[in-house]
Amino acid sequence: MASRALAHCMRSVARASARLNHGNVLTRSACAPLASDQRALSVLSCGQRTRWTDLVRISGPSVHLCRHYGDLPPLTLENIKERVMYVLKLYDKINPDKLQTSSHFMKDLGLDSLDQVEIIMAMEDEFGFEIPDAEAEKLMTPEEIVQYIADKKDVYE
Amino acid sequence: MAVSRLPPAALSFKQFLQRQKVLGIYRDLLRTIRKIPLESNRRYLRDWAREEFKRNKSETDQDVIRMMITQANNHLEDLRKSLSLAGC
Description:
The structure holds two protein chains of two kinds.
Chain A (H helix, E strand, L loop, with lengths): L1 H19 L4 H12 L5 H18 L17 H14 L22 H15 L5 H4 L5 H11 L5
Chain B lengths: L12 H22 L4 H17 L6 H25 L2
């Protein structure tokens, strides 16, 4: 009997939260612990319902869908450029002050081909996909790297 | 006159191929080192590889380079075998 009442309270809370607030992860995660606690008192859960809907109502207008379903946030040209420059700044052989998107690794920054291989490896690690040898050796400026990654990842702008 | 930082011009065809081979081996080595589980071991081997390649960077004798390429390949094979034996 108590468990049926509990289940009913749970379902109405879930329905209320779903109606008011489609994407709010907060309420969903708030629902989850209660779902796992089978022994909770029905009185307690029904009492909490009003408090939750209040909470839900307050945060209603600022909700937006933010579910990624395990995917990464979408790439933009700006984002790619930032990440590329960040990785380059971390590289110990590059002087971060002299670094620009158009600086040539060998001509402007004084690196050699072994360093360039290391840099492209670091980019592979950062973006999570492999760059074949033939194309890797042609990438000589940060701008080219950004263009290449945008090509491979289908980022249009 | 501006100082040119271009890599030495006019490598012969064989030298060009050798250069590509060396870079390919360096890349394969780095890729294999990536699979090593412990970060400290990874770093040590990366530094070792870097040192080895940098030290011999200015070698010009083709036969010596060929010998070093063979050595590097042997190291790479050893590393791969150890990794597969260790189950990575």
